Amino acid sequence: MPPLSPPSALPLVSIVMPCHLATPAQAALLDETLRTVRDQTFQDYEIILVDDGSPLPVAPGADAQGRITVLRQDNAGPALARNAGIARSRGRYLVFLDADDHLLPPALAAGIEALDTHPGAGFAVGPREEMTFEGEPVPWQVPPPPPQAHIYLPLLRFDWYIIPPSSAMFRREVVEAVGGFRDPWGADDLDFYLRVAHRFAACCFQVPAVTRYRRYSTSSSRDGERMLRSIRAVYARQWPLVEGSPDAEAAYRHGLQRLTDIFLDCVVENIEDRLRMGDRIRALESARLLAEESPRRWRALLGRSPDAAGLAKELADANLREKGGMAGSMNSSARCESLP
C-alpha cells in the first residue's frame, strides 16, 4: 500500500460524503462505506463527511477510520451538504460518495489515470457494479458508460445516466466553474451533471468498475411526486440552452418524457405502499396527481386494487365539495355585486 500523505500536505483527492443517519442500520452502512474507502489502492485522499442533521451521532464510527473531517449542519438535503463539503475540501480532484454505496479498490487510481491521460476532459466516468440492499450481487449485468466525450445530449435524452455519484471524478476547477450543486432536492445530481456536461468534455472508460451501487426498491426509496417536481425544475433550467436547436429540443423532450414516465410509475407504487401502511391522506394526495396526469395508470390501478377504488370515491366526493365551495363563493360574489 502506498504511504499516506504527510499531515501537512494537500491531498490529491477529496471524497465528499453527505450523510443523514436516522437508524442504526444506516450507521452500519456508513461504516461499511468508509471501509471501502480505506481499501483504495491509491491512498492520497481525504474524506469530508457532512452530517446533514442526523438524529444519531456520526463521529464515533467515522473517527475510527482516520483522515476524516466531520462537518455538521442542520438538515438541508444532499445538494447543500455536498456544497459544504466542497468548500471545506482541499483536493485537486473531487469524488462524491453516498453513505451507503461502495468505492471499489481501484476507483481513485482509475479516475486519476483517466484525467491525467485526457487533459482536455473536465471529469471522468467509470463503470459501476450493483448490489441488493442487503449487499448481495444482483443477477444482471450493468453496461459500462459508452466511450463518449460529449455527453450533454445523451444525458439530457436520458440515453444513459451517471449513477451513483461516485461513478465520476471531477477536476476541482470544473466543480467551482458550475457553482457546485443546486436544489431541487431529488434531482440535484442530474442538474449538476447536465451543467457540467454542457460546458466540459468527459472521459468515459469501460474498465475497471469504480463503485458499487446499493439498490433499493423504487417504492421505498423514491417519492414520485417530489421527483416529478424536481426533474421538471431541472429540465426547465435546460430549456434556454436547447431552444432553437432541433436535435437538442428533441433530446430535451425525450428525456423529460422518459423521466416523467419513470416517476409516474413511482407514484403508482407510492399509492400502493401508503395504502398498505394505512396512510390514506398521503395516498389520496398521490391518487389525485395520478388521476390528473396519467388517467391510463390510474384506471389500471383501480382495476387491480380494491383499496384504490375506495380512494376513487373519496376523490370524487372531494371534487364535489370543491365544486360546491366554488359555486357558493361565486353566488356570494354575485349577491354582493347586486347590492346597491
Describe this structure as you would to a colleague.
The chain is of the alpha/beta class and 340 residues long. The protein has 13 helices and ten strands. The chain has two domains: 13-216, Spore Coat Polysaccharide Biosynthesis Protein SpsA, Chain A (Alpha-Beta Complex), CATH 3.90.550.10; 221-338, no CATH class. The protein has helices spanning 24-38, 59-63, 78-88, 107-117, 152-157, 172-177, 188-199, 218-221, 224-242, 246-276, 280-293, 295-304, 306-338, and strands spanning 13-19, 45-52, 68-73, 93-96, 102-103, 121-125, 128-131, 168-171, 201-204, 211-214. Helix 1 (24-38) links the parallel strand 1 and strand 2. Helix 9 (224-242) runs antiparallel to helix 10 (246-276), helix 11 crosses helix 13 (306-338) and helix 12 crosses helix 13 (306-338). It is globular, with a radius of gyration of 24 Å. The termini are far apart. Mean pLDDT is 90; it is low at 1-5 and 332-340.
CATH level 4 superfamily of the largest domain: Spore Coat Polysaccharide Biosynthesis Protein SpsA, Chain A
CATH top-level class of the largest domain: Alpha Beta
Structural class comes to alpha/beta
* Coarse shape: globular
> In order across it, which strands form the biggest sheet?
3-2-1-4-8-6-9
Q: Which second-level CATH architecture of the largest domain applies?
A: Alpha-Beta Complex
The portion of residues forming beta strands comes to 5-15%
The CATH topology annotation of the largest domain reads as Spore Coat Polysaccharide Biosynthesis Protein SpsA, Chain A
- Average pLDDT metric: 90
Helix content: 40-55%
